[in-house]
Amino acid sequence: MDRIRIVGGARLNGTIPISGAKNAALPLMIASLLTDETLTLANLPRLADVALLKRILGNHGVDMTVSGKRIGDGDLAGETVQLTARTIVDTTAPYELVSKMRASFWVIGPLLAREHFAKVSLPGGCAIGTRPVDLFLMALEQLGAEIEIEAGYVVARAPNGLRGAHVDFPKVTVGATHVTMMAATLAKGETVITNAAREPEIVDLAECLIKMGAKITGAGTSTIRIEGVDRLHGAWHEVMPDRIEAGTYAMAVAMTGGDVLLEGARYDTLARPLEILTEVGAEVTPTNEGIRIYRNGADLKPVDVTTEPFPGFPTDLQAQLMALLCRAQGTSHIRETIFENRFMHVQELARFGAEIHLDGQNATVVGVPALKGAPVMATDLRASVSLVIAGLAAEGETMVNRVYHLDRGFERLEDKLSRCGATIERIAG
Ligand code: UD1
């Protein structure tokens, strides 16, 4: 298994190109199941989760071709892929594939809308809490599906097709909002989703669906209206930049000091975390090319942060912020409200000498004058990258084990960081 070796202490200076967003790419790829025409997606990140979803979609009958590079494309440019689901050859998404990545469960929406039947294994993914699917099933039932759970599979039927309905989510859920929106595009009549997720990835998916002929208004607000159409057609769409990747590198620069342009990053998708970074002591400047993060040697200040659905502080940046706050002058508080078991990085951060106290969903981070490099273990996607950030700022050598978690969500992390002056390398093994 590959490992990542870091020697901490270097400031980061330069430009980091931000890749296409994993959390937008996945639902966009799944949307290709809704039409028999070609959906072309540009700026797809080269990530393990994207590769896995290609296999899952291939299994359902999606043909994929990858376009060659264009002149001027840097070596970190995203991929352009044509996805064509001329016919759906299999409406079953098997356990072996779905158990590896939770988002693959989302194929249930398009399969049911187009084929009126889907059999999808209950999902897996990061081990961060129980992560049930009750709200997906609630929404699909409201759209007229009959749902049964059989031997670990969700079997969903809509013999006469789906029909529009009012879907009111008792809790904000990104995945179930994506799925309901996709399913409703081909339902008969109007669907209204209330308490919908407002994440930028929902807007990106809605924009792509609209290009495919869907009638959607309100994406990005908590009420989304979808007027069903008979069929969708092909389209071209560019995946939005990854706000979590950009936020992660912003925290790294805030921690090590330096001056980095996050090329392509969109300020509007990161306003809250960047506001927090400013409070902590970094300088944040939106530019025409992206977002510039700067910090000289000044002290880091402690902050109190609660994770919330967008536009609040994202749970996907909680671990990275915690790493940063380990070096603040004073005591910070972090409250995790989205996932119940998302503090697995705490025991690994402790190996660097961090002082963090946990009480249920609350973490108290007591800043220490210095972190010391250590061997650590990646436990989930976002937790692993917090260990990289800590390692970049720690004295001496850090070895991050089990980096396959990182490869699920961060494209060529070690290349992007070493080009900015970090001492970081992948050790194959
Ligand atoms: C997505 C993101 C993930 C991010 C999360 C929250 C992708 C591929 N993943 O995950 O990176 O951390 O949003 O921003 O986009 N819930 C239920 N029942 C359900 C569905 C969800 O109780 O049927 C709960 C979850 O357990 C969690 C909360 O709702 O407590 C939010 O989860 P959700 O927004 O659905 O997360 P994902 O879509 O899985």
From TrEMBL:
It is found in: Cytoplasm. Its main location: cytoplasm. InterPro entries: Enolpyruvate_Tfrase_dom, Enolpyruvate_Tfrase_sf, MurA_subfamily, RNA3'P_cycl/enolpyr_Trfase_a/b, UDP_GlcNAc_COvinyl_MurA. It comes from the Bacteria. GO terms for molecular function: UDP-N-acetylglucosamine 1-carboxyvinyltransferase activity. One of its GO terms (cellular component) is cytoplasm. Phosphoenolpyruvate binds at residues 22-23. UDP-N-acetyl-alpha-D-glucosamine binds at residues 102, 131-135, 316, 338. Pfam families: EPSP_synthase. Keywords: Cell cycle, Cell division, Cell shape, Cell wall biogenesis/degradation, Cytoplasm, Peptidoglycan synthesis, Pyruvate, Transferase. GO terms for biological process: cell division; cell wall organization; peptidoglycan biosynthetic process; regulation of cell shape; UDP-N-acetylgalactosamine biosynthetic process. Pathway: Cell wall biogenesis; peptidoglycan biosynthesis. Its EC number is 2.5.1.7. Residues 8-417 form the Enolpyruvate transferase domain. SUPFAM superfamilies: EPT/RTPC-like. The active site is at 126 (proton donor). It catalyses: phosphoenolpyruvate + UDP-N-acetyl-alpha-D-glucosamine = UDP-N-acetyl-3-O-(1-carboxyvinyl)-alpha-D-glucosamine + phosphate. The modification 2-(S-cysteinyl)pyruvic acid O-phosphothioketal is found at residue 126. CDD domains: UdpNAET (cd01555). Belongs to the EPSP synthase family. MurA subfamily. NCBIfam families: murA, PRK09369.1. Cell wall formation. Adds enolpyruvyl to UDP-N-acetylglucosamine. This is UDP-N-acetylglucosamine 1-carboxyvinyltransferase. It comes from Kaistia hirudinis. The gene is murA.
